[in-house]
Design a protein that fits this description.
CATH architecture of the domain at 5-43: Orthogonal Bundle
Order of helices and strands: HHHEE
Strand content: under 5%
Helix content: 40-55%
Structural class: mainly alpha
Radius of gyration: 25 Å
Distance between the termini: 40 Å
CATH topology of the domain at 5-43: Histone, subunit A
């Protein structure tokens, strides 16, 4: 599938990237190759293939959360280097 320059410019704009003409040509070629490969995969007949999955019981591999205290001098140094702090805590912008 051939990708045109306007589509690459649109992706660059949405990604907030400024691309040179050489980069535009390179990404145009790469995106086209990726989409060609996806089209090739879509044409494969997988109706007779077995479904791949994880055998056995799935177990959480993550460790438990634990509180590890920071040495006082490192904590104070971090707070002093922060952009904004309040009541001995680093103040950050609201996420939600």
């Amino acid at each position: 599938m051939k990708i045109n320059k306007e589509e690459i410019e649109k992706v660059a704009f949405l990604s907030r990237l400024k691309l040179s003409d050489n980069e535009m040509e390179m990404y145009q070629s790469q995106f086209s190759s990726i989409l060609d490969f996806i089209n090739h995969l879509n044409k494969l007949n997988i109706s007779s293939s077995d479904i791949l999955g994880i055998e056995g019981k799935v177990k959480n591999q993550l460790r438990e959360d634990e509180f590890i205290p920071c040495p006082e001098d490192e904590r104070i140094a971090s707070i002093n280097q922060a952009f904004d702090s309040e009541e001995d805590q680093i103040k950050v912008k609201r996420v939600l």
